[in-house]
Amino acid sequence: MHAALSPRLWKWINGLGLGGLLPFFALAALSVAGAAPEHQVMAEDWIYVYGLSIVTFVGAVSFGLALADSRADEALRVKWLVWSVCPSLLACAVLFLPAWCRPFALGLIAIAALAMDYLLQGALADAKPWLRLRTVLTTGAVLSLWTVSACGIYRLMQAHSWEMLLKAG
Fold first, then answer.
1. What is the pLDDT of residue 84?
2. 30 found inside a domain
3. Is the residue at 3 inside a domain?
């Protein structure tokens, strides 16, 4: 992966990847310091949608590897294909959870996706730069997602609404 990419291309990959953290950070900040409760609720919804798109994108990388990496044996390529659809399916299933815990569940999916990347791509000698970047991106995304989820729990606890906590969504 790395050997085939120029330093200029890696600058773009790193820049776009790190830039992709900005919506996570902005939505976490809105959740913490939103001027009105509806802004905080909006942050829960938006970070869910953005997080879903990101974990789907991460799965697509594995799909692309399965198609493009002719050096990998067929069994590994099949594993990449099967895994590649899992993040988006799991993220869609999260929609059925209460709104306050959707970001938390997406964080768990992001961690699982990173673990699978290490398992499935770790065998590639040139995957190390990509996996390092994925670790940084996943850490930033998960911290943001979990911040929004924690704010949602706090808001519901402040309202003393345990029934809302279980049904919110």
1. 92
2. no
3. no
Q: Please say whether the beta carbons of 85 and 64 come within 8 A.
A: no
Question: Distance (Å, rounded) from C-alpha 110 to C-alpha 138?
Answer: 6
Q: Which domain holds residue 97?
A: 47-167
For range 3-9, the mean pLDDT: 80
Q: Tell me: the pLDDT tens digits for 51-107?
A: 999 999 999 988 888 888 788 888 888 988 999 999 999 999 999 998 888 999 999
d(CA 94, CA 99): 9
- For 13, residues 6+ apart whose C-beta sits below 8 A from its C-beta are 5, 130, 133
Q: Which residues contact 123 (CB under 8 A, 6 or more apart)?
A: 76
Note the pLDDT of residue 1: 45
In a domain, 121, yes or no: yes
Rounded Cα distance between 39 and 56, Å, is 25
Task: Say which residue, 69 or 50, is predicted with more confidence.
Answer: 50
Phi/psi at 7 (5° precision)? -55, -35
Structural domain total, the chain: 1
pLDDT of 167: 58
- Is 104 among the domain residues? yes
- Report d(CA 83, CA 127) in Å as an integer: 17
The number of residues making up the chain comes to: 169
| Structure tokens, 56 | 């789907």
